[in-house]
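Take a record:
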Amino acid sequence: MKHIKQLIKDKIGAAVYPISSIEAHLKGAADWLLAAQQATPDDGLAHSYDVRQRTWNASYPETTGYAIPTLYDYARLYDAPAYAEAARRMALWESEIQMEDGGVRAGTMSAEIVAPTIFNTGQVLFGWAKAWLETGDERFKSSLTRASDWLVAAQDEDGAWRRFASPFATSKLNSYNTRSAFGLVRAYEALGEERWLAAAVKNVDWAVGRAFANEWLPDNCLLKMEDESALTHTIAYSIRGILEVGVAAGREELIERAVRMSKLVAARQREDGALPARYLPDWKTRVDWTCVTGNSQMAINWLRLAQITGDNTLKEPAIRANHFNMSIQDLNTPDTAVRGALKGSHPINGEYMTYRYPNWATKFFMDGLMLEQKFDVAKNIG
């Protein structure tokens, strides 16, 4: 019944709350991430809280990996060591469950299929790289090296990753693996291995080499859709990967491509600051619900591009997207399983993470707010 009440509130506009300070919204989000860690029997982050079932789902290695830098950044920004300690324990857990070949398993810890997958491995690189830089613990360096080498070995000659696709996604060839290339950039920045940067560049060159004349990337969604549409979530993944690989490699044309793609997304931003969840190959949209994660990810992209290029016109859509997500974050509910969290979709019955609060929605929300807060200081937020 609780999920029905939430849906009704979303539909009638009653689930919109007064916007508070960025500090208050960040604190609520950070505390929820710690609650998501404490809800599991290990040190990973629960995949999500299911408001329909009233249960926490099992730990999710992929997104636990890239939540680690977020918590370290928050801990440093607010001199709050408890969040850094939580991040350190997450990184240790990731090392403990790393597969023998160096890869990271697909799915959650409750998944019946246990197999390494490209995307998940790429995302955990963010956590190990950050944990190594923060602690100097050799376990993180070893895990980072093994996982990065596994990704390079799994890459095809043209730069694509065709092997080790997720058994839980219907799309097996993914343009949004540029986000995995971005993970290799973080590994390169941490340990200086040039071959990791070279592999990242090769993947991005492959992805943009397949782009349509209007900048659209094919095969850029979790699911194979008949209309070839893609979620803002995966569109934003691909843009960030192109951008950050371009920055690391000094490839201005990649940065310019990221600008063009980001402006095409911004052209469809709603009056309330949210983005329609799905874009078509002509960059038009076709749904009225919003992917909350995608809103935050695009805010990050716009702010990073504004920092890098000096184009401050990109700051405005970012702040609007952040403010929309702030307005749907409930900081006062007595239900600690959702207080401070961000939904997968708004309304909550949207097609992405339906009736769930996925940990990565809250992670990217924090990244977007911290980047807005520190806009005038160039930061690398993972």
Summary: The chain has a mean pLDDT of 94. DSSP finds 13 helices and nine strands in the chain. The first strand starts at residue 48 and ends at 50. The beta strands are 48-50, 55-56, 104-105, 116-117, 230-231, 278-279, 290-291, 345-346, 356-358.
